[in-house]
User: Fold EF-hand calcium-binding domain-containing protein 10-like from Xiphophorus maculatus.
Amino acid sequence: MATKRERDATAYLKKHKIVELMDNMTSMLLFYRPENPKEFLIEQLDLLKVSRESGIRGPNLFDNSNLTAVCGIMDPANQKYISFAQYKQALTMLGIKDININPEGRAKDKISHETFKTEAMEVLKRDSATYAKY
Assistant:
């Protein structure tokens, strides 16, 4: 059983979305691999502050062209759809943990590229919104 201090710490982390913030910052470090990681993190935090103050969406590692490339990898025959297993694998590969388990096309096991990209962007936008709430 968790102590009051542990419960308070957990509540604090959830309230301020600290885990999501750290996950996103770590992902950005690994994606960009800057020469000076501390300076890079300071710059990112400054950008996040501006994002929060202006209401503009926070940074996001992936855009439509990246998601199109993922579709190309998952669908080399260019059938314009992927299986549900590929959908889950691709989202996991992008670091997305909380996926829609019933996307359009699941019943026929044919998830269109557009559905995949829409689902991925929705989660990525939601995750980048955690920046604005740190």
